[in-house]
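Exercise 7.
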Amino acid sequence: MRHTLPIAPQFYVTAPQPCPYLDGRMERKLFTALQGDQAEQLNDTLSKQGFRRSQNVLYRPSCSDCTACLSARINVAAFTTNRSQRRTIKRNAHLKREATSPWATEDQYSLFRRYLDSRHAAGGMADMDIFEFAAMVEETPVRSRVVEYKRKLNGVATPDSGSELAAVCLTDVLDDGLSMVYSFYEPSMINDSLGTYVILDHIEIARSAELPYVYLGYWVLGSPKMGYKAGFSGLEIYKSGKWQPIGDPSLHSSETHPLSVDPIAEQVAQIALPEARLTRG
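Solution. The predicted structure, written as tokens, is:
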């Protein structure tokens, strides 16, 4: 007789800590380990339910009275560029994209440090050393790529002129799209809108691979750091247990309420899990 066995990971909740996006609020996360033979299948399944990967952990916001953080993805078929985005693509047309295995380099870390020091000096990753950076990139139990964007040194386009990193994105390949785990870029090129360009390029990568979605992480109403994602057409958010078009961002509420979040036990009970491989018994 054939049987399918459910994958039954254990879920845990972090202790509350200050929210990095909204002042005066506390964040809490629901998480589970990502390991074993079924790691890729679990990552695919939980990503569709608003979870994100960080090394060998999958997590989702589970704050006690706030639902401002909403998982966001771009529906590739529904996406069209606006005038500003077309200018960004043209401005960065000289960059060369290279997708490699998830292997950290000193050049990547140097760029990562410049980016953090300029953009997120007070953030939770500010003290990350090169070994922790390598772990972030290399400790992946799923199909991951490091997508590098390089520019010619001094603008000289000769074979021996060399190149330098302008931007990097750690990207997971899911069964239904690309998940942009973490990206960073050269802070001195702020006027080139590299963060936006990397997203636009990932949309094109997904389109060419016939993958329907690009997962962006979280859209946070009221957060200048995360609100920019609403500027991409075709954006969907995971809300009330389903993906839906974001619509008018101003119509979503970031107010706190003690009844706005289901109890942890109910949240876990509602998570759909993948089935394991068939076994005989």
